[in-house]
Every structure is written in C-alpha cells, then in structure tokens.
Amino acid sequence: EKMPAYKVYYFNARGRAEPTRLLLAAAGVPFEDVRFEVEKWPEYKPKMPMGQAPVLEVDGTMICQSAAMARFVARETGRAGKTNLELAKADMIVDGVADLMNAMANYHYYEPDEARKAEKKKTFFETTLPQFLGHFEKLLVANNGGDGFFAGDGLTHAETFFLCLYESISKENPNVLNAFPKLTALVERIRTYPGIKEWLAKRPQTEF
Amino acid sequence: MPTYKLTYFKHWGRAGFLRLLFAAGGIEYEDVRIEREMWPELKPKTPMGQIPTLEVDGTTICQSKAIGRLIAKEAGLAGRTPLEEAQADMIVDGLTDIELKLADFFVEKDETIKQEKKKKFAEETLPVSLGMFEKLASSGGHFVGDALTWADVELFSVVYFLKHEFPGDPLKGYVNLTKVTDNVMSNPGIAQWMEKETAK
C-alpha cells in the first residue's frame, strides 16, 4: 500500500506543529515541512480549513487543529494506543498539555498590560504549572510504574505534546521538572527515541 | 459492554454534550451529578483536579473531549474512516474554541467588562465563527460525510449555550447549521433525552 503524501504547513517555529512533526519523525515517514514567513500568511490563510495554522495535508485533504493532526498521524503510524481506552488516556494528557500551552499563549501574546502579564506568568509558573506537572507525574506512575509512557506501552501523541511543553517551560526555568523524577526520565526517553533523536538534531532551530 | 460512570455538576456545562452522546448511542451509564459543596472533597481524587470524569472499568478519564471521543466511538459517532475521525476531531476542537470564548465573558466578575466582552462576542466573534462553520457543514446538515457524528452533536451543545445567553435563534440565517441541529434532534435517543432534560 502506497504511503500517503504528508505536508505540514506552519510558521517557521515548533509551536503547535511540532507534536505532529515529531510523530512523523518517530515513524520515519517523509513529509514536506512547509514553513512560511509571517508576511506570507495572508496568502495561505484562505486555503486553510479554518483559517488557521498548523495544517496537515494528507494526499490533498487538509486537517487542522494541532491535536487532531497529531492524533491522525499517531493512529496511522501505530502510536495511538492499542484500544480506545488507551487512546483516551493519551488524549487526556494531550488536552491537559494543550490547556497549559494556551495559558502560556494567553499571557505571552494576548495580555497587553505589562503588569497583568507579569502577574499571570508568575501564577502560571508558581501555581498552575506545578499542579499539573504533579498530576502528570502521578498519571505516568499509574501506568505500570512510570518507567514507560503515558498510555499503553508505547510512545503516543501524549509524549510529543509533552516534549513540546517541556521545551517551552524549561527555557523559562531549567529546573522545572526537578520535583518530578519520572517526567524527567520520560523527557530523555522521548528525546532519544529512534527517529525523534535524529529529527531534534536536524530540525530548524527556532525560538518558539 | 463496559460500565460507565460520568461525574459532573448538575448543570449542562462540560458534561451536557457527553450526556447527549450517551443518549445518541443508547449507552447505559451512571449519571452522577454532584452538589457544589461536594466538589472540594472530590477534587483531589480526580486525575487533574477537574470534572467531568468518566470511570470506565476501573480507569478514570478526564478532559471532556477525550471522554467525548471515547463515547462517540462506542456510539458509532466518531467517523467511519481515520480521515473522517480526524475531520470530526478538528470540527469539535474548533467548536470548543467558541465554548471557551463564551466561558470567557461568562466567568468575568466585573460587570462592566463582562457586558463589553459579551457584546464583542455577539457582534464580532460569533458571526465570524458561525459563518465559517456554515461553510464547513454540508447542505444535508453534516460536518463529516453524510452521517451524524459527534461534531454535529457538539454544535448542538454550543447552540444550547447560546440560547441561554442570547435572545432569539442563534442560527437564524445559517441554513446548513440549522439542518445540522435538526439532524441531531432527529436522533431518537437525543430527542428523548432533551425532552426529559428540559422538562426539569
């Protein structure tokens, strides 16, 4: 069976496209990594299903929304858990991570007042984030002791989303996972995963 | 068949949609609705300090859309192919964005800011969103293929919120979206559920 042609459309950033790129890399699936400059976005926007990026194009069909994209690739490449329940366990981690990424975007991009921005950022790093990392650590441990993955016995989109979160939060605070040994080990497990390891070394290096 | 226990507050909130999915699929479940006062005690027992949660055969799932997808699959409403599933997922996520914007003014405590946000939502945000989803829905009233999916049910749920916040028919003028909600109400399980639910 012929492998579909994959294209990922996004800005030149990791952002919301990287969880999908990581899964394609993990599966050794070639894809066209389309990155456009911000000024070019108005040309691409009307072609996107919901006027947003990232978008995954699969043999001409366009899928948007970062979790939907990642889940599709995860499924197609056998990294979405073995049952619907395992998928749900991966999905809930992805949703929790997405909530945190939205909170970060909220203070970073959408809060114009500098004082409120600093306040929100402080609350995020001192309260919200540690709380959720605690939940994630516990959930990881609940899955066969925590020395594997979030769902089932393999890497899923939960891991690629989590790595992306880690890359953002650790820039701000390199010690952010000090209190969470299993999550710390998981990050290394993801980074050294075949396919992902090579991608991390060769991907464009961008700030976000 | 697994045993399901859904836990949430009494109101529609993030679980109304899930109760609709159970109804659409004719799936039995325990519909636990807690009083606000019970929440502080329950919170630390949940996976991420939030509800709704779904207990399935000893495992607890949280995050309303993760739960929704699981029930949708059980009910045969998730899409018929992997691509259809992805299309349903993206529509659900896009509609969830509307829910979040609704929530943004709903939870605003400052009354003046609240009214400003609500006005902006009604006059700017919502027409743009509904216009986009009108184009994504088919004239037959489906977001994915030509059969009911949980994406259609999610629109129905969003409209439920809109009706509670704004006067009149939020889908007036949106022919395709109106057909979607009509199709949702044609599902016998959902029709029966809504009758029961709104009679309270």
Characterise this structure:
- The complex is a heterodimer of chains A (208) and B (200).
- By secondary structure, chain A is an alpha+beta fold.
- Chain A is 54% helix and 10% strand.
- In chain A, helix 1 crosses helix 8 (196-202).
- The longest helix of chain A has 29 residues, at 114-142.
- The model of chain A has no long low-confidence stretch (mean pLDDT 96).
- Chain B has helices at residues 16-25, 39-42, 64-75, 82-106, 111-136, 150-165, 175-186, 188-198; strands spanning 4-9, 30-34, 53-56, 59-62.
- Chain B has a four-stranded mixed β-sheet with strand order 2-1-3-4, with helices on one face.
- In chain B, helix 1 (16-25) packs parallel to helix 3 (64-75).
- The longest helix of chain B has 26 residues, at 111-136.
- The model of chain B has no long low-confidence stretch (mean pLDDT 96).
- The interface between A and B is medium-sized, with 30 and 27 residues.
Summarize it.
The complex is a heterodimer of chains A (208) and B (200). By secondary structure, chain A is an alpha+beta fold.
Keywords:
heterodimer, A: 208 residues, alpha+beta, four-stranded mixed β-sheet, 8 helices, 54% helix, 10% strand, globular, B: 200 residues
